[in-house]
Amino acid sequence: MRNRFGMAVMVLLMAANAEAEVPRRQMVLTIDDLPSQEVTRASEADLAARNARIVAALKGRNAVGFVNEDKLEIDGKVAPKRVQWLRDWLAAGIELGNHTYNHNGLHATPIADYEQSILDGERVLRPLLAEFKREPRWFRHPYLQAGQDDAVRLRLDGFLEQHGYRIAPVTVDNGEWIYARAYLLLLEAGKRDAARALIPDYIDYMEAKCQFFEQASKRLFGREIPQVLLFHANALNADALPALLDRLRKRGYDFVDLDTALADPAYRHDDGYRGRAGISWLHRWSMAEKKPKVFYEGEPAVPQQVLDLAGVEGE
Ligand SMILES: [Zn+2]
């Protein structure tokens, strides 16, 4: 009896200890492609319901959403009810930033056209933010394409500064978009249970990504910096966000705003990347220091089964 009691006490102590050992961490939640990645793939009623669920999950969590204004349009005209969805974000205290009008990639777009897409991306956003006494101040590159040569980067930096924007980098880059595509295809096929069954796997995958970039931060800076997580406004997150955020909280994450995260000196590190892919800023900074291959090894991959469901060849 005594032995068993002693065992129970030990288990309790270990559990308490494990809880005490969860480090306090910081993360910014950023959501791209507002009002929805899937405007052409769902009814207005479904889109509205998904928007409401995402807003409810993010309320009070210092998140930032990034808008593509072409997704506010139906038949080429801005739809007031979709603008109202964005107003719901602002009313919930969530900040909104510019993700260009039409989600064009910097590397395939002449810089003058790209700049115009940023201006076109604030025709609704600027007056909408003004209703809340705010101005657009965050910019997120579509595809995280940040420029392949110094001339384009310098010009874009100058343009963004002139228009009051700061670049919102991403440190926890991930293949959430592949899960989202698989999820949507299953929903469209009427396989709701199969779609739901993807969610636990998705959450494990996202946590593994966080763990990987926590380690990447430790390797580069000797500590964990505030992370910036990227995901998208879609059906998957409308259903999975409460569980995902719960898992992140259990991992020790406090959700902070972008200003707080970017005040960390890590975010002033040189960016050594001029390639075409949209990779984590932690890797871009590591490249500036010419870090060895081991810095990039071990990144969790989207399982083949999910790639197959999504009809995607690779990440
Ligand atoms: Zn995007």
Task: Summarize the structure in words.
The protein has about 325 residues and is α/β, with parallel strands linked by helices. It has one domain: Glycoside hydrolase/deacetylase (TIM Barrel, Alpha-Beta Barrel). The protein contains twelve helices and nine strands. Strands 1, 2, 5, 8 and 9 form a five-stranded parallel β-sheet that branches. It has a two-stranded antiparallel sheet with strand order 3-4. A two-stranded parallel sheet has the order 6-7. A hairpin with a 2-residue loop joins strand 3 and strand 4. Helix 7 packs antiparallel against helix 8, helix 8 crosses helix 9 and helix 8 packs parallel to helix 11. The chain binds zinc ion.
H/I helix tally: 12
CATH homologous superfamily annotation: Glycoside hydrolase/deacetylase
Instruction: Output the helix-strand order.
Output: HEHEEEHEHHEHEHHEHEHHH
Biggest sheet, in brief? Answer: 5 strands, parallel
In total, how many beta strands? 9
The structure class reads alpha/beta
Q: What number of structural domains do the residues give?
A: 1
